[in-house]
Amino acid sequence: xxxxxxxxxAPATVRALAGALAGVVGREHVLVExxxxxxxxxxxxxxxxxxxxxxxxxxxxxVAAAVRLALAAGVPVVPRGAGTGLCGGAVPARGGLxxxxxxxxxxxxxxxxxxxxxxxxxxxxxxxxxxxxxxGLYYAPDPASQKISTIGGNVxxxxxxxxxxxxxxxxxxxxxxxxxxxxGDLVWLGDxxxxxxxxxxxxxxxxxxxxxxxxxxxxxxxxxxxxxxxxLLAVYHDIAAGTAAVSAIIGAGIVPSALEMMDGLIxxxxxxxxxxxxxxxxxxxxxxxxxxxxxAVAEWxxxxxxxxxxxxxxxxxxxxxxxxxxxxxxxxxxxxxALGQLAPNYYLQDAVVPRSRLPQVMxxxxxxxxxxxxxxxxxxHAGDGNLHPAMLFDRREAGAIDRVIEAGTxxxxxxxxxxxxxxxxxxxxxxxxxxxPLVFTTADLAxxxxxxxxxxxxxxxxPEKLFPAGTACVEVRDxxxxxxxxxxLC
Length: 490
Prior knowledge:
Shape: globular
């Protein structure tokens, strides 16, 4: 779904900027040919728009210099990691300059004593844990895309993952970030020791989706590799019983490191593709992982198995060894890829409800599927109510994309009505920016827009992201009105 062009830099401006940037990053790291730019038009979602040029810097100083040149020329700047996002966050909505971080890919330091590491933004998520596990440490946030997504992209969207139930999402593991601001200055936000006073600008930067600056280095918190891990698989005839078991486990005072659920459609596709060990005829499965001291994990595992059985599980089994555990997780983390067996395309939504409302929201997902004539398999982080319904379609069919987007919007409304919100970990980007008024008032959004204006008064950093169209104009007619009902005025 291409975007309508708005403000497009003049060709002469682009040529002059390309020449200047070549002097910063080297001519071979400035991309201007149409064929080279194609890969930077889109992320893993629907939206696309061509950049005018792309650079691949290798240092923070090169990023800062490029920012100064681009903004002096009035050219929008869009940071980009691996392009695995699903909400259009890395799509250059107004063209301009894309700053790719693929060459900023070094682990700069691992501090075992203080359990932290300093990395560049292009470091692959899983590579960080692979480097630190021999030292008895690991990085907790683990999005399903962790084999290819980058730490910088995870910071931009405040990514989560299956193992964030007990340990928290990205923001809980970021101690400090170095940022190239729209002014072209390089600054550190946060404090690796956690002792700094003043405003928490590190927290403001995490989840800001490249609208406030470009992250050029990150100090992350590392955790000790747990003494023991136990992985259980509970099998159910339907999804309702499994969702009820989720609340019962947490209600019993047990917080697993992961509580993941897949319905029968997903289970069948995963098993055909990965042979992970799921019962192919299951109505749903609940994947549960417990971590901690050996004695505690053994006790928790027995209690969880009993709770699952009491809530209708037809079978509960524990992974026998690391190989079986790895196979079960390969199936879960590869679930989105396995959907290719079911349809040419899918629209993977991301929304949240209180986990006690999971049975109701699953009913609503089924109703939406019937209303829009869509098959909707479900895979989700059940422990924290983070849903990922996958709306199957064929984008070659006339009107198919519009239909799934309408269905997705209906799902977001349903989640908000049930006490939830419109995104759990994918971010807002362009895809969900017009859904924010379902959650925030006009005054709320105006306050956020003013924060953005403090960093980037010209709105040239990743424009058209996060806020509903028009919210760059932060004067409002009546801040007491919900944003959906109150117009934005310049």
